[in-house]
């Protein structure tokens, strides 16, 4: 009887510890091309989809709004995106890759609203965890 209880206890401990490792999600953006990462960024900004934010941005991410000199790091920008979770902007959005050379990609994302246009210049870097957004500069031309 004691042997059975020890076996059951050991099995429970193994299952519990294995499930804690399984709960860590693998990066779904690790093996995708740069255009998929840009598309995920656009979804985060324009339709409030925040599911991939922790995988999307590099640790040294920098955001700047050129028109008013606002700046933010990764933590602040993700917090901002979380406050807009589910908000869908009424705009026409598009993006184009301006340059991709080796492990660096620069893209231009345009969000055309009725009264103004927002343009984000997005820099991505490719590392061991795949493509990550490392810098976004926003202008309102």
From TrEMBL:
Keywords: Signal. It holds the Pfam family Lumazine_bd_2. Residues 1-22 form the signal peptide. Transmembrane segments: none annotated. InterPro entries: FrzH/put_lumazine-bd, NTF2-like_dom_sf. This is Nuclear transport factor 2 family protein. The lineage of its organism: Bacteria, Pseudomonadati, Bacteroidota, Sphingobacteriia, Sphingobacteriales.
